[in-house]
Design brief:
CATH superfamily of the largest domain in chain B: Aldolase class I
CATH architecture of the largest domain in chain B: Alpha-Beta Barrel
Distance between the termini of chain A: 31 Å
CATH architecture of the largest domain in chain A: 4-Layer Sandwich
Shape of chain B: globular
Number of helices of chain A: 10
Strand content of chain A: 25-35%
Strand order of the largest sheet of chain A: 7-2-8-1-14-13
Number of strands of chain B: 23
Structural class of chain B: alpha/beta
Structural class of chain A: alpha+beta
CATH superfamily of the largest domain in chain A: Aminohydrolase, N-terminal nucleophile (Ntn) domain
Oligomer: heterodimer
Largest sheet of chain A: 6 strands, antiparallel
Strand order of the largest sheet of chain B: 11-21-20-18-17-14-13-12
CATH class of the largest domain in chain A: Alpha Beta
Number of helices of chain B: 18
CATH class of the largest domain in chain B: Alpha Beta
Radius of gyration of chain A: 20 Å
Distance between the termini of chain B: 69 Å
Number of domains of chain A: 2
Helix content of chain A: 25-40%
Number of strands of chain A: 16
Radius of gyration of chain B: 27 Å
Strand content of chain B: 15-25%
Largest sheet of chain B: 8 strands, parallel
């Protein structure tokens, strides 16, 4: 089973904190991959927050294709960051691991952020398609103030491989997943966390309702709903669809993936709306076993379970720094100095929400609304 | 001397031509006559025979010959009285002296066209072999990496939605203080939707069924809803609704069918102001899987006083519904109008959906309905559906199997992103081999939102003799030996409506448990796994390719 380590803080911190937490939770993952998504970046990126960062991996040939494409698309390269690669046994080095910071094409400078988001996503998809058949280009995210790193291997070794222990790479929200390869061949695009237009989730457990959910999402006519090399990618897209596309408040994500029974809905103030949502989004209902940890563009982080709560997670920390982990020992590693009696083990109706800048944590209960 | 023309019996059929041969045991028979009395087609009759008997009475063998008169039970070879194999004789025989035996080399169809009239019967397609539905296996079993659910412990919601579902991006919602509420200024029509059990009782009319059969089904359905909490709905078929039911609160469990004969609809329409509940839905019948392109038929012998009054017709006349609705000009115009008219009759509070027979053209119908915001569903009845009366050639040779028909329709909706908006109801052969829950689950995973059953219910709740070896299948004659499809009080008195209701409840409760036993190991419980095709496999590559599921062997 995959291990999940998310930390949100009002101060910049190193992804090594997440990696070490994963290491303490190691029993659960077999070292088949590490995925890292960093938001609200510090260090090298602190002064470049408004520029989109293209995160990915490419071969030498892929780099040329990528450069040509970006130039043609009108993006101007402002800066490049690349992890310092060390030779680590068991990890096959690829040609280029990169985070390329671009300036928008001139024609988009004065467009709305929403339009810019669509542009960035479409470019990411185009690059993915260009390099997918021969594996020459992998692009994980293309969005301002967001960086993604992924590689196959044991998380601690991958961290060493990327020199994360001595790099100045820092962020205020970092999600890390130690991947347990189960049904699928080890493939970078199957590695969590998944990111789309500011929305990010990572999940453990398998998704038994994957096919109907995928078919529903791909039928929305939204170009970003592709991929699905992992059955968990749909959780990210459901979040994106619910909050960005349908403009529902975040808590309705819980109502979409684990809808209440009719009798329970009656008790909610928004019962009329909820009934319609339950009907119209019926194919997006999950059956678990899953815990989903995610963030949305404003920096709010959350944790939810499937309705049977077969994959419990835990949230804990102190004001200004909270961790959302799949295991308690991971939380102990990330934030040892905290009041453990206040740790939150969300139940099946709960959505644990950590406010931006880790200001406070609240439990939203689906029944009590 | 007899003329040769009579001696050679050349104009008679031999018993070997008949589909069932009566095995009568002389030594067990006490000549009570119950078998001949009960036989619905008079296939057997008492006969007197003169036999030569050789006997010896003394101490030493001194054979002598005598001629004695014997009473026997004899099978007639008249094609119109051919034994149907129903076995009613065996049922009533006190000494196990008689039973019919299937004759696989029969030539029944060669002769069953006397008077130039094609063979008509009830039942369903005489194909006793394993259907595609029964070949589908559930192979995605949750093991270790995603633990299976517990059918006995976890909460399951084996429910489906009947009615047009709004697209999620057209919901009339507005956000206020972090909560969504209905936007009163948005005039978007919100179609009526019912939450029902995914196995429905398909259309069987009052008239086709006997009063105790129909009453038993209705009672069972009411009990399931009100006592067991299982929202099972049943469809009336064409032929009206008993007036008391129309004005009762139980109407909400009933789907009223309108078909091309419009039988009973004058009474229904006049009852609308007196209805205390809306019906569950309205089904517009455009086709039937058992007899595609053919109209309904209730033979004159079944049109007794009660049926005549419910249907608003004279007694003892053949009630034939035309093959198509006479007002039907085109799907865009007439079907849309009919859906809207029926919706309007109940103030747009009742889902209205068409039922068609399985056909290669189903997708055309589907795509039209997908564009009609008032169409509440599409019911497709496959070739293995049953009927009360039809030409044998229609039942046996016309129609489309349901599995690939429902699958291609579902995938068509997926392409349009409308698979959740227009529910598909699959029918025709569900439970043909007794695997009701498995067949239903397989169709759901292929894309059906619900399934409809008819023949299975008659077999399981009222011991209908009919099977795919053409056993019995005389529903059309009004002589049903079980009292299920007859209006003859002497026959339907055999059927106890309480027992039918009791069995119906048992059948649905068991199906509910079995559906959970299928869904639990596949890790599904919260919503019906509609379109969860990755859960299915089949041991035939061609079927797997056609249904776009995996091949497993």
């Amino acid at each position: 089973m995959c291990r999940l380590s998310a930390i949100t803080s009002n101060k910049y911190f190193s992804p090594m904190e997440n990696i070490l937490a994963l290491e303490t939770m190691k029993e659960g993952h077999d070292g088949s991959g590490l995925g890292l998504t960093l938001k609200d970046l510090g260090g090298h990126f602190e002064k470049l927050k408004s520029y989109p960062i293209l995160s990915g991996i490419c071969s030498k040939n892929g780099a040329k294709v990528l450069d040509d494409y970006m130039e043609t698309a009108g993006f101007k390269l402002k800066d490049i960051w690349a992890p310092k690669i060390r030779n680590v046994k068991g990890i096959t080095k690829r040609d280029h691991y990169f985070a390329r910071i671009y300036d928008y094409p001139a024609s988009f400078k004065h467009k709305s952020f929403c339009e810019k988001e669509d542009l960035l996503m479409n470019v990411r998809i185009a690059l993915r398609k260009l390099g997918e058949s021969d594996g020459s280009i992998f692009v994980f995210s293309f969005y301002p103030d967001t960086l993604t790193l992924k590689e196959v291997g044991d998380p601690l070794q991958v961290a060493e491989f990327f020199s994360l222990d001595c790099d100045n790479l820092k962020a205020k929200i970092i999600f890390a997943q130690g991947r347990q390869n189960t049904n699928y061949a080890i493939y970078l695009y199957a590695c969590h966390p998944f990111f789309i237009q500011g929305y990010c989730t990572m999940t453990n457990g398998e998704n038994t309702a994957f096919v109907p959910i995928r078919e529903f999402l791909t039928g929305r006519g939204f170009p970003g709903y592709i991929g699905y090399n992992s059955d968990s990618e749909v959780f990210t897209h459901i979040l994106h669809y619910t909050v960005r596309q349908l403009r529902f408040p975040l808590t309705y994500y819980k109502d979409v993936i684990t809808p209440l029974k009719e009798s329970e809905i009656e008790k909610r103030q928004d019962s009329k709306a909820l009934k319609l949502i339950k009907q119209s989004l019926r194919p997006l209902c999950i059956d678990g076993p899953n815990v989903v940890i995610g963030f949305i563009p404003d920096g709010t982080c959350f944790m939810v379970h499937d309705a049977k709560k077969l994959r419990p997670g835990v949230v804990g920390g102190v004001k200004g720094k909270y961790a959302l982990m799949s295991e308690e020992c991971g939380l102990d590693s990330a934030i040892p100095k905290r009041d453990k009696s206040k740790d939150i083990f969300p139940m099946k109706y709960d959505m644990v929400i950590v406010k931006p800048q880790a200001e406070e944590v609240e439990i939203w209960n689906q029944l009590q609304n | 001397m007899e003329p040769a023309s009579k001696l050679d019996h050349n104009h008679h059929l031999s018993i070997k031509e008949l589909p069932y041969i009566i095995r009568w045991k002389d030594h067990r028979c006490k000549r009570c006559g119950q078998c001949t009395a009960v036989c619905p087609v008079k296939a057997i009759e008492p006969a007197v025979k003169l036999r030569r008997v050789v006997f010896s009475e003394g101490l030493l063998p001194e054979p002598s010959v005598n001629r004695k008169i014997y009473h026997v039970i004899e099978q007639v070879t008249d094609i119109d009285r051919a034994c149907t194999g129903c076995g009613a004789c065996a049922l009533v025989c006190p000494n196990d002296a008689i039973e019919p035996e299937y004759n696989p080399s029969n030539k029944f169809l060669h002769f069953k066209n006397k008077g130039g009239e094609g063979y008509k019967r009830g039942g369903r397609r005489n194909d006793p072999f394993i259907s595609t539905l029964d070949r589908l296996k559930f192979t995605r079993i949750s093991m270790l990496t995603d633990p299976a659910l517990d059918a006995g412990r976890h909460e399951f919601r084996v429910r489906t939605l009947l009615g047009r579902i709004l697209p999620s991006d057209e919901l009339p919602l507005i956000e206020k203080d972090g909560k969504l509420t209905i936007d009163e200024e948005n005039e978007r029509f919100v179609p009526p939707v019912r939450e029902i059990f995914p196995i429905m009782i398909g259309s069987m009319s009052v008239g086709a069924l006997s009063p105790p059969m129909w009453e038993g089904l209705a009672m069972g359905v009411a009990y399931l809803n009100e006592v067991e909490g299982l929202p099972v709905v049943m469809c009336t078929g064409e032929g009206g609704v008993p007036p008391r039911l129309l004005k009762s609160r139980f109407l909400k469990y009933i789907i009223i069918q309108i078909a091309s004969g419009y039988f009973g609809w004058d009474e229904i329409v006049h009852a609308i102001p007196h209805m205390v509940e809306d019906p569950a839905a309205i089904e517009i019948k455009y086709g039937q899987g058992a007899k595609p392109g053919d109209g309904g038929l209730l033979m004159a012998q079944k049109v007794l006083k009660l049926i005549a009054s419910i249907r608003g017709v004279p007694q003892f006349v053949d009630l034939a519904s035309p093959p198509t609705h006479q007002t039907k000009y085109s799907i865009e115009e007439a079907v849309a109008k009919m859906i809207q008219s029926m919706s309007m009759a109940w103030g747009f509070r009742v889902p209205v959906y068409p039922k068609i027979s399985g056909t290669k053209t189903a997708r055309s119908v589907l795509n039209n309905l997908a564009r009609n915001p008032y169409a509440a569903a599409l019911s497709i009845d496959g070739e293995d559906g049953g009927t009360g009366a039809a030409y044998n050639v229609s039942i046996d040779k016309m129609g489309h199997p349901i599995a690939s028909n429902i699958r291609e329709c579902y995938l068509d909706l997926v392409k349009q992103g409308k698979q959740n908006e227009l529910p598909l109801i699959a029918a025709g052969g569900v439970g043909k081999k007794g695997n009701l829950a498995a067949n239903a689950a397989a169709l759901i995973m292929l894309g059906a939102s619900a399934v409809s059953i008819g023949k299975y219910i008659m077999q399981a709740t009222a011991n209908c003799f009919g099977d795919e070896y053409n056993r019995c299948n005389i529903c059309n004659t009004g002589k049903c030996p079980r009292g299920i499809t007859t209006q003859d009080p002497k026959l339907y008195r055999r059927l106890d409506s309480d027992k039918v209701a009791e069995r119906l409840v048992e059948v649905f409760k068991a199906a509910n448990v079995e559906l959970k036993k299928i869904f639990a190991p596949m890790g599904r419980s919260t919503e019906l796994p509609i379109g969860m095709s990755d859960g299915l496999s089949v041991d035939d590559k061609a079927i797997a390719d056609r249904l776009e599921i995996s091949y497993a062997c």
